[in-house]
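Action item from last meeting closed. Structure (877 res):
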């Protein structure tokens, strides 16, 4: 980061300075060359008004009574998860409409000779922008990042600048130029978290500069970096850089590009020169550079190695621009064929396994407005289940989630914008509106490709959620050919029903396609749910949305108080509790894994990847609309507390021996039940109660659904071992898994005593809670016994008192309406989670939790001061 003083000095003396270019040998610690560039965090210090206001875009408008907020900001965060969910309409409580944001800021005097750009990583849904009272642009798609060129509007030095943003997330918003709605705007598919709900950055550059990858508004493509010419065994590849360079200096300039490749330890690994070219004023050109990388650490799911690539422009021997791009290098192959097909990273077959997740990736009580470190926390939690795959649903993911997946080693599917159907196939639309809606989707795909094409975790571009026409598939492939021809990615569609599209698709997506009917297809080209043997032999098949079932975290099983099972209401589709949800999930996962593409039997060689819908409970379309405030298909709930399914997926997806006892061991006297143990890579599983063996089994059980006495055979679980008629005795229950005659996995659970107190555990970012008005700390609260152990059947109210510089955001109870943002919340299975948000004031925050009859608990959280000057904050980006 370059401070304002160094920036000012450099710009004033730019014509006199010599280039400071490192010529260190590879392996030396790298010091970036000095540069006139600066990047600032533009998140803090906004004023907010909920509603429409006349003249709010004018610089002299009085915003002193508006609320102080910082981005990311969601203005309907505590409106959501408040009402019982709707199947067709999703969340029914979130407020939508027009709001205003304003921000005052100053720019360093020395930057007046350069360019000023603003990047919004996104906002929802639409925005209109005014800078110092002048209209500066608009944004409407609600998905992709966007850029604004502020240079014509801003003042420098001590002059005050004001940016005003009018945001509209109305459910019926339509594109201004065409009158066409955005088909992905529906709440059932994309929870409607309005506001400046992503990070914002300010860039200061010289007049000769490398553009930003922000095609929305700016129409610029930035830097494209891709590897080629791999030798995996020798650990070498070529690194290729294509940088879009623009000259706005007022005169012709001789410009050169050079590249430095730096590893995670800060060591220089490669350095090479690129193009030199003369650009006249106003000219834009792609500059290219390439060179060899040796001793390369390739990116993969198991080893998500990243590099920093510094792209340096010099003009007449002086450094004019330095841009840093974080990326990774991997060799990809996408193959069809029974026994030989699949996705290969660096020459190795990778079974892609994980979850489908709404791109909103929201958190109850916070919406989409939570800090970057919590996105990293979420990605690492996903990875802790040995998942390596996320299929983002219907719209492109948030940039912060893509970066988190890069770091965690999670392969991603990136859609464009979609709801359910190619609009030109929707007979309810006029032909013109259908064409306009399709063009909106193409624009989103183009913008997303340009922005994300340096992110190694994205391997799949998804052109549609549910069938598109063959000409439209070709159009999306043309976009890929233009903007990401060398990225090692493929483009396809979920549920591609057009047989004529088979030769075009580079991969195929399906939904709920593992079915006996796919085994029994007659003929090579016959389709069932978009699957055919012909397609299987051409390219990888990815299951995009399997296991749509739902179950809440709070229902252990039929024997656990206080609920003793789940009793569905009249509109509920599913009747699972936490235990039976695990069994049903295992049946589905096992069925797909037994039909993995690496099988040599063509009938049972189909799938290269698998996702179960969802990772976390979501404020979207739910099928439990008699009982729940969320779609509860998640393996964790909406504040990322694990369900038992989290542990079962961890076991099933683990490439090493693993074992987990499903449930708890604190039951009423005389309870007799079947105990289920999830195990993988074990020959036998043995169960013990207080050290006494209750038997050994070497066969996973079949799941028989006994709800209402129906005794419906669901199928083989593949991973679940059953021990029937186990009588509860207080103490310890344990299980051991063996392989090759030795114990390779073990788990045990203790009986908890009666609750005597409360326990609080604080989670904050790596540098503690930051007083930037947008950082968050979340706190687990538990009911514990005399030994400090959680009481797993505790389900009762806890009250909170909070003091100090913080905004209370609370948490939620999935089956209780209006639970969000209250200063009280119930435990569920002995635990729940609440959140606080920082303000701009540093200091000590005290949180106290109480319940009558239990010892109270309190914690102190210190909100750390941050440096904010003239509305700008140092950025690590």
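Sequence:
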């Amino acid at each position: 980061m370059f401070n304002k003083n160094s920036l000012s000095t450099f710009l004033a003396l730019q014509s006199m300075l010599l280039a400071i270019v490192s010529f260190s040998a590879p392996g030396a610690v790298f010091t970036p060359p000095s540069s006139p560039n600066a990047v600032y965090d533009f998140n803090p210090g906004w004023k907010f008004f909920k509603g429409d206001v006349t003249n709010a875009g004018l610089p002299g408008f009085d915003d002193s009574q508006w609320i102080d907020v910082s981005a990311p900001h969601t203005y309907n965060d505590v409106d959501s998860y408040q009402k019982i969910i709707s199947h067709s309409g999703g969340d029914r409580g979130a407020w939508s409409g027009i709001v205003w944001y304003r921000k005052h800021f100053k720019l360093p005097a020395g930057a007046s000779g350069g360019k000023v750009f603003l990047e919004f990583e996104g906002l929802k849904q639409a925005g209109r922008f005014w800078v110092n009272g002048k209209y500066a642009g608009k944004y409407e798609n609600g998905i992709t990042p966007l850029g604004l060129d502020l240079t014509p509007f801003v003042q420098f030095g001590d002059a005050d600048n004001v940016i005003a943003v009018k945001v509209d997330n109305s459910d019926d918003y339509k594109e201004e130029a065409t009158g066409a709605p955005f088909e992905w705007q529906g709440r059932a598919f994309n929870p409607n978290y309005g506001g400046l709900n992503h990070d914002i950055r300010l860039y200061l550059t010289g007049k000769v500069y490398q553009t930003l990858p922000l095609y929305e508004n700016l129409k610029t493509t930035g830097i494209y970096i891709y590897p080629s010419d791999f030798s995996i065994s020798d650990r070498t590849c070529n690194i290729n850089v294509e940088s879009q360079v623009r000259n706005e200096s007022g005169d012709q300039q001789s410009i050169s590009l050079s590249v430095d490749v730096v590893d995670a330890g800060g060591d220089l690994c490669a350095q090479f020169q690129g193009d030199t070219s003369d650009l006249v004023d106003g000219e834009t050109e792609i500059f290219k550079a390439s060179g060899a990388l040796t001793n390369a650490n390739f990116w993969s799911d198991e080893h998500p190695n990243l590099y920093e690539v510094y792209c340096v422009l010099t003009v007449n021997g002086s450094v004019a621009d330095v841009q840093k791009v974080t990326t990774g290098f991997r060799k990809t192959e996408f193959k069809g064929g029974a026994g030989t097909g699949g996705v290969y990273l660096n020459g190795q077959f990778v079974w892609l396994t994980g979850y489908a997740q709404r791109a909103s990736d929201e958190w109850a009580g916070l919406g989409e407005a939570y800090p970057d470190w919590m996105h990293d926390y979420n990605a690492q939690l996903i990875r802790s289940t040995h998942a390596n795959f996320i299929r983002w649903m219907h719209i492109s993911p948030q940039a912060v989630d893509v970066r988190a997946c890069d770091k965690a080693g999670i392969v991603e599917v990136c859609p464009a914008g979609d709801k359910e159907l190619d609009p030109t196939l929707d007979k309810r639309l006029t032909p013109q509106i259908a064409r306009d809606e399709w063009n909106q989707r193409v624009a989103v795909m183009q913008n997303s490709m340009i922005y994300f094409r340096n992110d190694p975790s994205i391997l799949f571009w998804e052109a549609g959620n549910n069938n598109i026409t063959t000409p439209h598939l070709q159009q999306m492939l043309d976009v890929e050919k233009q903007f990401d021809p060398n990225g090692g990615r493929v483009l396809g569609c979920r549920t591609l029903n057009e047989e004529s599209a088979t030769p075009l698709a580079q991969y195929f997506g399906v939904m709920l396609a593992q079915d006996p009917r796919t085994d029994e297809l007659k003929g090579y080209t016959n389709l069932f749910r978009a699957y055919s043997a012909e397609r299987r032999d051409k390219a990888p098949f990815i299951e995009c949305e399997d296991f749509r079932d739902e179950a809440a975290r709070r229902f252990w099983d039929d024997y656990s108080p206080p609920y003793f099972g789940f009793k569905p209401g009249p509109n509920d589709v599913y009747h699972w509790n936490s235990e039976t949800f695990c069994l049903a999930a295992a049946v589905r996962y096992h069925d797909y894994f037994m039909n993995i593409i690496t099988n040599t039997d063509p009938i049972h060689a189909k799938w290269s990847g698998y996702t179960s819908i969802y990772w976390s409970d979501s404020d979207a379309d739910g099928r439990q609309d008699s009982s729940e405030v969320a779609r509860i298909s998640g393996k964790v709930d909406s504040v990322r507390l694990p369900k038992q399914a989290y542990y079962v997926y961890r076991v099933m997806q683990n490439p090493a021996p693993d074992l987990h006892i499903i449930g708890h061991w604190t039951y009423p006297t005389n309870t007799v039940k079947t105990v289920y143990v999830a195990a993988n890579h074990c020959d036998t599983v043995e169960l013990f109660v207080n050290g006494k063996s209750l038997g050994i089994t070497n066969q996973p059980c079949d799941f028989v659904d006994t709800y209402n006495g129906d005794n419906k055979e669901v199928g083989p679980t593949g991973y679940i071992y059953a021990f029937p008629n186990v009588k509860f005795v207080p103490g310890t229950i344990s299980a051991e898994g063996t392989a090759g005659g030795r114990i390779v996995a073990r788990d045990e659970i203790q009986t908890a005593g009666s609750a005597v107190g409360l326990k609080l555990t604080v989670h904050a970012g790596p540098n503690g809670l930051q007083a930037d008005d947008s950082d968050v700390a979340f706190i687990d609260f538990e009911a514990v016994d005399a030994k400090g152990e959680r009481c797993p059947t505790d389900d009762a109210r806890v009250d909170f008192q909070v003091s100090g510089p913080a905004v209370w955001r609370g948490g939620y109870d999935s089956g209780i309406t209006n639970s969000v943002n209250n200063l009280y919340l119930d435990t569920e299975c002995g635990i729940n989670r609440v959140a606080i948000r920082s303000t701009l004031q540093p200091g000590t925050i005290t949180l106290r939790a109480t319940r009558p009859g239990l010892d109270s608990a309190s914690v102190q959280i210190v909100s750390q001061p941050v440096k904010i000057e003239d509305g700008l904050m140092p950025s690590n980006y």
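Note appended to the action item: The CA atoms of residues 660 and 678 lie 5 Å apart.
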